[in-house]
TrEMBL record:
Taxonomic lineage of the native organism: Eukaryota, Metazoa, Chordata, Craniata, Vertebrata
GO BP annotations, alphabetical order: L-asparagine catabolic process via L-aspartate
PANTHER family per the UniProt record, alphabetical: ISOASPARTYL PEPTIDASE_L-ASPARAGINASE (PTHR10188:SF41), L-ASPARAGINASE (PTHR10188)
Species, as recorded: Sapajus apella
Gene behind this protein: LOC116547612
Location of region: Disordered: 1-30
InterPro entries assigned: Ntn_hydrolases_N, Peptidase_T2
Family to which this protein belongs: Belongs to the Ntn-hydrolase family.
SUPFAM superfamilies: N-terminal nucleophile aminohydrolases (Ntn hydrolases)
Listed name of the protein: Isoaspartyl peptidase/L-asparaginase-like
One GO CC term, this protein: cytoplasm
Amino acid sequence: MPLGSSHGPEAETPESGSADMNPVLVVHGGAGPVSEDVKERLRQGIVRAATVGYCILREGGSAVDAVEGAVVTLEDNPEFNAGKCAFRLVNNVSPVKLLPHNK
């Protein structure tokens, strides 16, 4: 499953450029109380979003492309409110952006 985590400084860190290095993508689908049937649908949506992003990384895509793929997957899923920013500026513009480091 394309979900993973490391815990603390004792986690192994492959050398830079190591062939053993695997990408990691973490997807957060929100928080709050939900019923069991909704919880399962949310879990499935999170796994789908993580899988989309992970596949982009495994196929050589950039981290920005992977994040965009995962976020778009959440935005396209009606179970999530991704893309429907709760906070908007006075001119109704969302303050959320995804920019590569060189922009």
